[in-house]
Amino acid sequence: MSIKTAAANCASVPCWTCRRRRLKCDRALPICDKCTCSQQPCLGYSKDKPLRWTDSVASRGRLTGRKVPHRGQHLPINRVLGDPGLQGLSPSVRGYIAYFEQQCCQECVLYDFERANPFKGFIQLIPSCPGLCYAVVSVAALHQAFRIASAQCDQSPTAYKSNLNEVQISQWVEQVHYMYQLPAYHDALYNKQRTLSFLRSEAYAGCFSNPEGVIACMIMSLWFELMDSGRDTWRYHLHGLREVMLKRGLSLELFKDGEWATDLPRMSEYFDTSYAIFQIMGSTFVQAKQPYQPLFSMSPTLDILKRSESQTWIGCPATLLYVLSLVNAAASSSDKWSPDWADTIFSYLRNFSPMKWAVAGVEVHYMRPRYQLACVWQAAVEIYALQVLPVSFISGVFNERRIRNSLDSILHHLKSMDPTDVHLKGILWPAFVIGAEAQTMSQRVLIANVFGHLWTLWRSHNVTNALKVLEKIWARQAMEGSSRRWIEYVYEWGEDWMFI
Predict the structure, then answer these.
(1) The whole model's pTM is what?
(2) What is the CATH number of domain 1-50?
(3) What confidence score (pLDDT) does residue 254 get?
């Protein structure tokens, strides 16, 4: 590159972020690379100094850094609306961003700790990535539309027909029709299209102006599709997410002599973890399963999944997620497996202790719900393994009769979970798997009640569609008996579902 060309790609002055942090700026265009690497919002190179809101008494002199004493709790909305990088946005957009931080971010993680919630970190990337702004607004608007529509229904979300073999979702269809008329729903669709347009332009450009922002956009797009249905379209975003992350330039160059050369940035850590969750869970109800491969190949899979316990909403213990990945890998290459695989999967399942996992939790008062959550996931993972692995592979290792005999005790754990407990957000996938195994009307009514609680929590089509698929499974079982595995019905219908 010539000196003239290099000069043309650099600003004449440092960016305002580096000036405030007293760092040497590389003056890269359109945004500073130093800000990008440190995950700081680049405030640009404008001549006018950006407005900066602080709670300090003065910016210079003896009172520099002194703060006005606060009474009461600091509201997150003040930080969002006071961010200098968001000052140019319209009031409605800023309102959606504030709504996203206050209402959506807490649902995206199991435990909402301020510093450990990566979705709140997405907001810091918005000033340097316009597409991420569209993606965040689309998710917030859709979430808000679901809440407004469901508030119109005063009756119970579930009802049961006189036919004992059929369970219906009452009032939900009416809420959907009402939601289609809401301005928030129109805002969600409009910003979804703008997000897709942004991602398309980034893909055509060949190099990403802000890789972290683009990846965050794709994760938000995945969330949108899961909230809106959970069917089929999430696959395209997941495929794109993998391609972008592989091109991001954070692969083996981070390693030296088999060890980390530098610490993996926190946001990159979350991207890797989030991809692992989507890839493993997305393969469960898809016939053409894809074995999970870590994007950073020298990072052990189990270590990546352990981060998911604190960084995501999934709620599944890392060991059981690892078992799921092993089951998917075995099912995807049935002609290459060895007998040792069954022993390995069985060993992980049997050696996992729900009580030990519960005791190792972050809060003492969460011990009981964590124990219930772990028991539910352990049973669901074993049921799933029995469904997808060939009979010849599991015979002599897994005991299907034992699972059916213990189904009532498994359902008791589901029934005992407090509908207001934070751990409820992590049981959609296991509730679906256990529900598909339910045989009696009382068991199915209990599962439908659990989905009613999940609907109250999530208010998304992902929940309603999961119950509708269960209804179809129960109807087929009523006609054909239990001679076939229920996973074969899911494959036969040809719809790729992700219920999380």
Answers:
(1) 0.77
(2) 4.10.240
(3) 44
